[in-house]
Amino acid sequence: MSPRAAWRLERFGFERVYDYVPGKMEWLSFGRAHEGTAQLAGDMLHSDVPTCSVESRLGEMKSRLDEEGAAFCGAAGDDGVVAGIVQGKALDANPPSPSRR
Fold first, then answer.
1. Residues 6+ apart with CB under 8 A from 3
2. Is 69 left (phi over 0), alpha (psi -120 to 50) or beta?
3. Domain containing 35: what range?
4. Residue 101, in any domain of the structure
5. Residue 77 placed within a domain
6. Are residues 32 and 63 in the same domain?
7. HEC profile for the chain?
8. Which residue, 69, 77, 33, is CA-closest to 50?
9. Tens of pLDDT along the chain (101 residues)?
10. Is 40 inside any structural domain?
11. How far is CA 80 from CA 16, 23, 84, in A?
12. Are 40 and 55 contained in the same domain?
């Protein structure tokens, strides 16, 4: 909502009005509530995919995936950015090795 629209709502008596600076697309990209019936790409994504550090040992990952019943995990750096996925035969390759190899 624009600052002007927020100001107008305040003038009409609304007390909890916010000027969301990043914009509507940013709001929707985080799966926030929206009006309408359009199905957005984010509605199709799973947010419960297991992740692990790129420094994690493959054996640790395999154990965790077995416990969770998952087939793969996203290997992410310290900044939370996914560098890739670890799955299948890669988990059995050399369990003591870090995933970044």
1. 19
2. left
3. 3-44
4. no
5. yes
6. no
7. CCHHHHHHHHHCCCCCCCCCCCCHHHHHHCCCCCCCCCCCHHHHCCCCCCEEECCCEHHHHHHHHHHHCCCEEEEECCCCCEEEEEECCHHHHCCCCECCC
8. 69
9. 678 888 899 999 999 887 778 888 888 888 888 888 888 887 888 778 888 898 888 888 888 899 989 999 999 999 989 899 988 888 877 656 565 55
10. yes
11. 32, 23, 12
12. no
For the four alpha carbons of 48, 97, 57 and 88, in that order, the dihedral sign comes to: positive
Q: Which residue has the tokens 């199709």?
A: 44
What are 58's two structure tokens? 């493959």
Number of domains in the chain: 2
| Residue 17 included in any domain | yes
d(C-alpha 24, C-alpha 95), whole Å: 44
Among 55, 53, 26, 54, which residue's Cα sits nearest to residue 42?
A: 26
pTM for the structure as a whole: 0.53
Residue 63's φ and ψ, nearest 5 degrees, are -60, -45
Strands 51-53 and 82-87: unpaired
Instruction: Locate 16 and state its tokens.
Output: 């909890």
